[in-house]
């Protein structure tokens, strides 16, 4: 036992993953005092405010498309997601609020996405707000993002169900964006594109706004992402993403399980990410890291702004019916570094030819107890030493 301890300490000095937010006092406990909050809103059905304690600063859009409000783009994006210039306001939105609870006794809010696909507002958006709780609600058919928190601190998303049809284009469930101290717990999310996506601004706009997404916990989630990834980082990450802990995630019927996306011109970083206890079923690519992914807002980006992707730990993962175990495609100018894989067991759809079950370029890291065996780039020597730790 002392031998094992020494080796584990040695391991952490080779690749320290310092994602904060473990244990007591974590972000998942911070917001958990809904009854002491001064303002609360109960939404029993779309557009209707329930119990008389209306918080009039939380706005509900009129659901008539011809009266849809157009607002300024977010400063960290410089434009709308799909279109240059302005963007459509979200259905439910709050700007510069604090101590807000949006809860609904498991009521349903239906965004009627089909009506909106040409405009793509988000269903719920909080901007520059603090101490926000969204809980016990079911959201259906968001036209774009279901819950978008941008420039927020202390956000708790608890017991939320969010569904869109698997065919819905680019729908994303929960998007912590340039936000810190975020907890997503006990949620069920089924989306056309990504279930949970962490972001922090787009190219030169995100770089100058410089607000990272940090200290995020994701726990006890059931996720499905038909054409994207159940959990993704980026591709808009120019303000940086760090200190993210994902634990106890159930991922099914998804194109990819965990994805890291970035590209030249983004700058920023994705680092100190710790993912553990993940169960994946019927997933095409379990881990997908792509360093040449995504477009630019305009031609003003700095082509020499290379993103950093480093200190990523993926451990205790069990997968069934997986087609590709992992693709890690860094680039020559910004290789992915310190990727640590341990205790990963993936049973492959075509178990015969496992030669291409991992595909790697410009990535460096190590692995311990990983099946199928990863590419050599992810097998630095210390990983072999750890494999001999006596138990
Ligand atoms: C909440 O509603 C969803 C469907 O809208 C349902 O699947 C789920 O079981 C409900 N949860 C509770 C605790 O009632
Ligand atoms: C959500 O519902 C659960 C019961 O399913 C309840 O214990 C909890 O207090 C509710 N949370 C809020 C914020 O209303
Ligand atoms: C395996 O997963 C694929 C999706 O990646 C799915 O279409 C297929 O039905 C699954 N097979 C089984 C046996 O569940
Ligand atoms: C990376 O993203 C680019 C652009 O979307 C795409 O062409 C390429 O196929 C992706 N690579 C992988 C391995 O998915
Ligand atoms: C390996 O991961 C599985 C979950 O996939 C977990 O149940 C098991 O305890 C882990 N083993 C070790 C030695 O940590």
UniProtKB/TrEMBL annotation:
Keywords from the named record: Glycosidase, Hydrolase, Signal
Any one GO biological process: carbohydrate metabolic process
Gene Ontology MF terms: polygalacturonase activity
One Pfam entry name: Glyco_hydro_28
SUPFAM superfamilies: Pectin lyase-like (SSF51126)
Family matches, as InterPro entries: GH28_Enzymes, Glyco_hydro_28, Pectin_lyas_fold, Pectin_lyase_fold/virulence
Keyword Nucleotide-binding in record: no
Secretion signal span: 1-19
UniProt family annotation: Belongs to the glycosyl hydrolase 28 family.
Protein name (record): Polygalacturonase
Species for this entry: Thlaspi arvense
């Amino acid at each position: 036992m002392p031998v094992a301890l020494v080796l584990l300490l040695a391991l952490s000095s080779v690749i320290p993953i310092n994602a904060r937010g473990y244990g007591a006092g974590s972000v998942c406990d911070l917001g958990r005092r809904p009854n002491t909050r001064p303002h609360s809103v109960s939404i029993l059905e779309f557009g209707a405010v329930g119990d008389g304690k209306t918080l009039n600063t939380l706005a509900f859009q009129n659901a008539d498309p011809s009266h849809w409000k157009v607002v300024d783009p977010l400063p960290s994006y410089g434009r709308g997601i799909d279109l240059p210039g302005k963007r459509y306001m979200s259905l439910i939105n709050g700007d510069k609020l604090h101590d807000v609870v949006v809860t609904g006794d498991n009521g349903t809010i239906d965004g009627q996405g089909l009506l909106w696909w040409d405009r793509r507002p988000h269903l719920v958006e909080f901007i520059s707000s603090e101490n926000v709780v969204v809980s016990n609600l079911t959201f259906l058919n968001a036209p774009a993002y279901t819950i978008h928190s941008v420039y927020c601190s202390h956000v708790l998303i608890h017991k939320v169900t969010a569904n869109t049809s698997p065919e819905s284009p680019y729908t994303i469930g929960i998007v912590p964006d340039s936000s810190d101290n975020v907890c997503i717990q006990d949620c069920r999310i089924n989306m056309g594109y990504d279930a949970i996506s962490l972001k922090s601004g787009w190219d030169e706009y995100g770089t100058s706004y410089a607000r990272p997404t940090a200290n995020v916990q994701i726990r006890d989630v059931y996720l499905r992402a038909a054409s994207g990834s159940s959990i993704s980082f980026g591709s808009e990450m120019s303000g940086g993403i760090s200190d993210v802990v994902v634990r106890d995630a159930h991922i099914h019927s998804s194109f990819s399980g965990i994805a890291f996306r970035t590209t030249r011109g983004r700058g920023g970083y994705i680092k100190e990410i710790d993912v553990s206890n993940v169960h994946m079923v019927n997933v095409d690519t379990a881990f997908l890291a792509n360093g040449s992914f995504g477009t630019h807002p305009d031609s003003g980006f700095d082509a020499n702004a290379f993103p950093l992707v480093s200190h990523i730990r993926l451990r205790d993962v069990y997968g069934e019916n997986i087609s590709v175990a992992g693709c890690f495609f860094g680039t020559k100018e910004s290789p992915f570094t310190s990727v640590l894989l341990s205790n990963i067991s993936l049973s492959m759809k075509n178990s015969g030819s496992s030669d291409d079950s991992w595909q790697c370029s410009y990535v460096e890291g190590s692995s311990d107890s990983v099946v199928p065996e990863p590419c050599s780039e992810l097998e630095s020597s210390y990983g072999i030493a750890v494999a001999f730790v006596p138990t």
